[in-house]
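1st attempt posting a full record on here, be nice pls
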Amino acid sequence: MKRSSGFYFFLLSVTLLTVLGFINISRKLAWKEPYDGVIWAEGPNGLIAEKVSENSPAYLSGIKPGDILFSINSTPIRNRIEYVKMLWVLDRLEQKALYQIGREGTILAPSFYLEKKGVSSSYVYLMLLGLTTLAISLIVFINSRRKFSSPYLFFYLVLLSLYSFYVFSPTGQMDLLDQIFFWLDKIAIIAFPPLLLNFFFIFPQKKEIIAHPGVLALFYLPGSILLLANICLVAIFQSKLGDAQILNYQRILDKGELFHLAAYSLMALFMIIYDAISNRNLYIKNQLKWIAGGLGLGALPFSIFYILPFLRNALPSSAGQLSVLFQIFVPVTLAYSISRYRLMDFEVLVKKGVTLIISFTLIALVYFLVSSQTELFSENRLNAILLGLLAIILGATLFTPLSEMVQTLVDRVIYRRSYEYRRTLLLISSQLNRERDLNRLVSYLVETISKALSLKSLGLFLAREERPDEFYLLRAAGEPYLALPVVQLSPAESQELQKTEFLSFLPGTETPALAGIFTSLKDKGFNNFLPLKLENRIIGFLALGDKIDGSFLSGEDRELLRTISPSVTLALENAYLYNQEIIRSQELQRLKDYSDNIIESLTVGVAVIDESGLVTGWNRVLEQQFGLSRSQALNRHLTEVIGLENFQAIFPPETQAEYQLLSEITLTTASGQKKIFDVARTPLLDNHFRAYGTIIVFEDITEKIGLQQQMVTS
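the predicted structure (as tokens):
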């Protein structure tokens, strides 16, 4: 495939910025600067101590917040530039610092040796955030198969500027590389706001305003002025102005850049909110809702708690410093928007992101709590190795159980209403196999899944035995669809169910191959299908509609359904077979009852014995003939019931097992009375003509024989 110039521009930019970024990171992490432990702010009479870190050299020498710095080693200090220069002089000469401090009209002279200070934890976090931003842009770039169009170009420009803003930071060495890092940082913080706004001018739909180039260029004008002012300050006025003036102008420009960042971010946020409210497409509306939420989490806390105090010449509070943590939502939101990930996957991403952030934060707190109570923070290499091992063991041991616990808490807090249903849904596997009644099983299954996922509609279709491609609606929940009791699947539809574990049809995401299948079900609102497969055979499928609130099934919902699919399939198959077995047994029972009624209605005695000779049948006529009740005869050997002599008369040794008629044999009843019977004996045969018992018919001819004898004698 032919690549556009934008493609190669992106690759070149990413390669160059990645190399420079890693160089900047390595230099920044290795850089140590002199540090006295005080944050100084410029006041009318000199530098004023705003914050003094505990256990720092200044703290241990008695310097307190509110103290005024007049001089260091007899050198007057009037601004921060002179202060920083003096710290570097003392560090290179390895001299002791002698401060002249004013406190409530008293002059103090504390002295101490400076410490070496590495990068702050905020830079480390922003650096990791920048690398994450770069990784996100590469993932989207690699996975995207779309044309390198205008939205993609602006997306990559936004992410590259955001990456540069997070990663690039001059160290203070002031060499050529440091100058490059300085300008990359400046260009990034100035270019990011208008690029972000321009991106949302064309996403998700192109706005009419950008049809006017003059109006669009107007949005880039403030950033251009800020960049030009920085260039003029460095290239023209730096050699003509004093340090205090340069510092003052630089502070003004810094405020302008942060105000520019906050204003444009909030403009983009309000524009997204407006589009979310006014857009009629439900899919785009939900997508914009999550984009607004992500951008709001990243921009609002940072603007309110960090930028606003800075503009008022105040130090950011603890909340302002923590607001930096929410910057992670900005690149994630941008990646979601351009990739057009499904809303449900982004919801799961947010939930898992919250879980990971909380888990990492808790582990970090435990780690720093343990390390702060030890003396491992030293220059000793062995102690540093032990501290690293402690961190590895701590993370490996606590992370998995901690993340599972946090995930459960997040589910309970954010998804309180469906949490119990979801937990019930996960327990389905252990509960389904206990139920054998098909109707109760289907009712429980459909109701549980429908409530757990808050579905508008749900239908369970089962295949007919005689026609595997025809499925009948066994049970439905939610909005009724009784007009569709039977579904005849085409070969393409059956093949699609056979090869997939879950099938979804969302607006604007259908491929031409899938557009023409399941149309009858899609017209009824069923957009999701879970095949129920057993040994490569489709025994049925679940047809699911959208959620009650109009949203779509999330990736977690689909994974949950895929997880329980084998258990549901097996339980339905077992219940179906069990139900069929009950039907067959009922039919057999009806046949048996019918046979018993026939036998009971006969005028001759009938006895049935199994292969071992146990009596299994004994009708009422036989009860009268032998004087033995049915309960006395059943489940006893025939010899015990009628006696050995009678048994031998009915089954003489020389007879065969086939049908045999014995005429005028004398048998003794239970009362000792002699009776004459015609006995017919025949084997009972199964479908394979194997004998599994014998039926014996007794016709009492005692009176008949007596009449014959009377006629003969008369």
